[in-house]
Amino acid sequence: MRDALHYLSAAAALPPEVSGRFDIGGPESHSYADLMRLYADAAGIRRPKILPLPVLTPWLAAQWVNLVTPIPRSLAVPLVESLQHDCVMRNHHIDAVIARPANGLTGYLRAVELALAKMREDTVETTWVSAHALESPADPLPTDPQWAGHTVFTDVRERDTQARPESVFKVIQGIGGETGYYSLPVAWALRGLMDKLVGGVGLRRGRRSRGSLSLGDAVDWWRVEEIVPGQLLRLQAEMRAPGRAWLEFSVAPTVSGSRYTQRAVFFPYGIPGRLYWLAILPFHGRIFSSMSKRITMAAEEIDRNLPRHLE
After folding, report:
1. Whether the Cβ atoms of residue 198 and residue 240 lie closer than 8 Å to each other
2. What is the arrangement of strands in the sheet containing 243-253, beginning at the earlier edge strand?
3. Which residues sit opposite 233 in a β-bridge?
4. What domains can you pick out in the chain, each with its CATH number?
5. How far is CA 8 from CA 22, 98, 112, 127, in A?
6. How many CB atoms lie within 10 A of CB 261?
7. Which InterPro entries does the record match to this protein (predicted)?
């Protein structure tokens, strides 16, 4: 990305008579198998065993990639199909019009090390999951008065806690990804696998940052639709379901601490949507009750660990 931005910004300053198609690339080339081995070395994990299977078609391989990685089927299929073709520079004509970066071209291993460093430091600015289709402005939202006449199902949980509002919101803002959802992880994982099997995004997209969220960020199969720091977080579901769903968290100060409110909203699509809600209703009782309880407990734990001079 660093090299690509170097060439793009330099190309914008070229005189108009410079025209043509130019390839850009790194200082060396590798096989796809080598790319995985080098990544393992940089990440400090065991190198994978790679066994070529001549009978496996790209389409079947893409279904496997869809299941075992966070990549959704819509991306996995074209990505795997592209592996049949070399992706190397056919010419170096670019060197005649744009000088290489001052520090030289970035090699693959160096690029991986830079990316992993950003992950460790929690300074990732954007990821492949950041792109998403905008909803129509006419679509109903969970904030519309009476939901504009639409059928709606809700699950609302409230808990009073002695934890400070900022501690509660810190826990809220860290939900998903490696942290999980504070309730029945097996049930969440199973629902994510079911979503993957039908071509959805699944529950393994993770997060851009471990501790902070911004508008439009992806959180597993959710998308941050609204965030008011210290007060509100609303997530819209991007999983496959016969309806539209949101999960909303809010916190407000009280005399003794704060009040935590958790709201699940579902707009069903016809009879299949209503049946879907009824089918998962028994699980909601345990999942959402446990979630509200454990989130407030985690916030109280944060307060207990605060140094006295910060209380």
Report:
1. yes
2. 153-161, 258-268, 243-253, 232-237, 222-228, 218-219
3. 227, 249
4. 2-122 (no CATH), 145-310 (3.30.530.20)
5. 11, 10, 21, 20
6. 15
7. DUF2867, NAD(P)-bd_dom_sf
> What is the DSSP-derived secondary structure letter of residue 16?
T
Give pLDDT, residue 10: 95
The answer to whether 213 and 173 have CB atoms below 8 angstroms apart is yes
- What is the overall mean pLDDT for the chain? 86
Q: Taking the chain, what is the end-to-end CA distance rounded to the nearest angstrom?
A: 44
Structure confidence by residue, pLDDT tens digits, 35-82: 999 999 999 999 998 887 776 677 788 878 877 777 777 788 888 888
Q: Which two tokens stand for residue 77?
A: 């299929």
Tokens coding 31:
């096989």
Q: Distance between CA 20 and CA 12 in Å, rounded?
A: 14
For the chain, percent of residues with pLDDT exceeding 90: 47
* CA angle centred on 224, ends 62 and 249, rounded to 5°: 125
Distance (Å, rounded) from C-alpha 251 to C-alpha 294? 15
* pTM of the model as a whole: 0.66
Q: Tell me if 130 sits within 8 A of 216, measured CB to CB.
A: yes
What is the rounded (10 degree) CA torsion for 200, 235, 220, 173? 180
